[in-house]
Amino acid sequence: MNIKNLFLNLKKFRQRIPVASSNNLIILLAITLIILLSSFAFLFQRMVKSQRRSISSGPNIVRSEEGRNAAIKRIKELAGENVEVKYLATDKSLYNPQKVEETYQVGLDMYVIDQATNYIVFYSEKIRTNKDDPKKEYDYTPRYTSSQLEKMARAFMAKHAPSVDLSKLTYNPKIYDNRAFFRWEDTSRQLADTHKMAPFIQIGYSVGGDILSYTNTLIY
Prior knowledge:
Shape: globular
Mean pLDDT: 82
Number of domains: 3
Largest sheet: 9 strands, antiparallel
Distance between the termini: 40 Å
Order of helices and strands: HHHEEEEHEEEEE
Oligomer: single chain
Number of helices: 4
Structural class: alpha+beta
């Protein structure tokens, strides 16, 4: 839609309406308002698309390969030193649009890293784009009780998020038949643009002891 063309069409339409008619004048004003609103909506949509492109591919937020070495080192602390870490993308955070995150792949796993701190924000099985993609298999053999899994969760936090004081957070676990998610929330504040969600740190385990996912939004 071109704004110049909109006003040219408006001018032609105005020439066909008797100016003396008050009813026609009201109609003309209404049409003018509709055209202006449509123009502003069109410009706003273009601006939003432009901003999204700049976030996704802007050179100001994509780090060099050398700059990503610290993130890769952090991933290997969890995944193992001998794994192959593949960089995938850089984008805005879903938890805070003012933050920038990088996504990496290790085998069938996906890691999301906060670019500013190189902390792991999210870890889980990578997203499968079609039904033929390989699926990660988890151990659901009932080896551990929920109490044992909680101890494992706390030990994991102490090792991989040592700066987090769980005693100052609100404990909010979710226990299911074959899995359990151990979550601690900072209820004193809220994350940006996440429907008033409190920042949290969480890890999920299968009853067989496999890590299902890990999330840490406390850094935001």
